[in-house]
């Protein structure tokens, strides 16, 4: 057997073994997505909340009080933003409803008076056909209701898992990770501890840059609504900011809201301009901010960012898009740290090492 063939065969079966192991791991993650997704969300929220908790402990707060204060501050900030959007829309709801009816009537009048030759009878027939197509039989409605109930239940369970995981990650994250590291062989503890610390710092940069990207989206679309003279500019901007953390759906929904408000208050031309502004801002995010700014912050090449987001969306949908960049960034720093033996002389590695099987000790 020629040496080249032996080497190729050795590489081939090892490569197949690695690919098989990765495929099994990915399959397990997909099967346990109801658990994995909430835990990953809790990790990203913990990255955002942990610096405040540490600062409170440094100035003398007890551990439980620092955790409680941090979580209350985090949720209060999110709740305040949501309340601002809801309160502003509720206050102008009557006007929005009236303008929506007027816009609908104007659209019907436009169709009746247009060169298309549409008659009122045709509009009535189309509407009745639409209602017939939308008729649901009892069995389908019951099946849909059960499906919705099941989905709502799964979401509530996921929120509960993420909430409790976040509490423990913020309060006891360091001790939990020391315990995990303590399960490893003694020679592996320092490398893994140092690499995980570097990975955590990279996740912190990722969260900060994600906030910056969402703020740019909100500023761009908010300014567009302002210069078009639209009402509800602040709720639109806040909704875009919050939606910026939800890939695909967030941008689509908030952009649709902005375009709808432009349509009912300023007409189809303003709505078209608003759509162009939303698309331009989203292109700026996807083509410039995400690959270049995000890539530079997490030390991942812009091409890798684009490929990771695409692959994540293909494999896991919206959760894959959301977690693709932080996972790739973490693995990049983790593997680079290990390959360069950077734990040698790294004080962070020694600080994070725990005794073997030592349990969760203070």
UniProtKB/TrEMBL annotation:
Alphabetical keyword list? Cell membrane, Membrane, Transmembrane, Transmembrane helix, Transport
- Is Hydrolase among the key words of this record? no
> How does the protein's chain sit in the membrane according to the entry?
Multi-pass membrane protein
**GO biological process terms held by the UniProt record:** transmembrane transport
Q: Which residues cross the membrane?
A: 12-30, 65-86, 139-170, 206-227, 233-253, 260-284, 304-331
Q: Where in the cell is it found?
A: Cell membrane
Q: Which GO terms describe its cellular component?
A: plasma membrane
Q: Which family does it belong to?
A: Belongs to the autoinducer-2 exporter (AI-2E) (TC 2.A.86) family.
- What is the protein's given name? PerM-like permease
Q: Which organism is it from?
A: Pontimonas salivibrio
């Amino acid at each position: 057997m020629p040496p080249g063939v032996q080497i190729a065969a050795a590489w081939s079966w090892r490569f197949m073994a690695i690919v098989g192991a990765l495929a099994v791991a990915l399959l397990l993650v997909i099967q346990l997505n109801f658990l994995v997704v909430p835990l990953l969300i809790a990790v990203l929220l913990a990255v955002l909340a942990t610096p405040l908790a540490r600062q409170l402990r440094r100035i003398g707060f007890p551990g439980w009080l620092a955790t409680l204060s941090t979580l209350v501050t985090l949720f209060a900030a999110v709740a305040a933003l949501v309340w601002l959007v809801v309160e502003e829309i509720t206050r102008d709801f009557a006007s929005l409803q009236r303008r929506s009816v007027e816009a609908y009537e104007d659209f019907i009048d436009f169709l009746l008076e247009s060169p298309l030759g549409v008659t009122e009878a045709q509009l009535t027939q189309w509407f009745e056909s639409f209602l017939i197509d939308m008729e649901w039989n009892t069995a389908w409605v019951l099946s849909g209701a059960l499906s919705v109930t099941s989905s709502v239940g799964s979401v509530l369970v996921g929120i509960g898992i993420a909430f409790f995981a976040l509490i423990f990650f913020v309060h006891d994250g360091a001790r939990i990770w020391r315990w995990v590291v303590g399960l490893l062989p003694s020679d592996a503890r320092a490398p893994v501890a140092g690499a995980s610390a570097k990975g955590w710092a990279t996740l912190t940069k990722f969260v900060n840059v994600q906030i910056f990207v969402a703020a740019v989206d909100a500023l761009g679309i908010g300014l567009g609504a302002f210069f078009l003279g639209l009402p509800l500019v602040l709720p639109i901007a806040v909704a875009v900011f919050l939606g910026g953390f939800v890939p695909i759906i967030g941008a689509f929904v908030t952009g649709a809201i902005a375009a709808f408000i432009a349509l009912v208050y300023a007409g189809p031309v303003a709505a078209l301009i608003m759509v162009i502004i939303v698309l331009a801002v989203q292109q700026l995010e996807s083509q410039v901010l995400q690959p270049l700014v995000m890539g530079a912050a997490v030390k991942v090449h812009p091409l890798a960012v684009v490929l990771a987001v695409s692959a994540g969306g293909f494999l896991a949908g919206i959760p894959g898009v959301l977690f693709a960049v932080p996972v790739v960034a973490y693995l990049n720093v983790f593997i680079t740290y290990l390959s360069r033996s950077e734990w040698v002389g790294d004080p962070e590695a020694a600080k994070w090492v725990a005794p073997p099987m030592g349990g969760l000790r203070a």
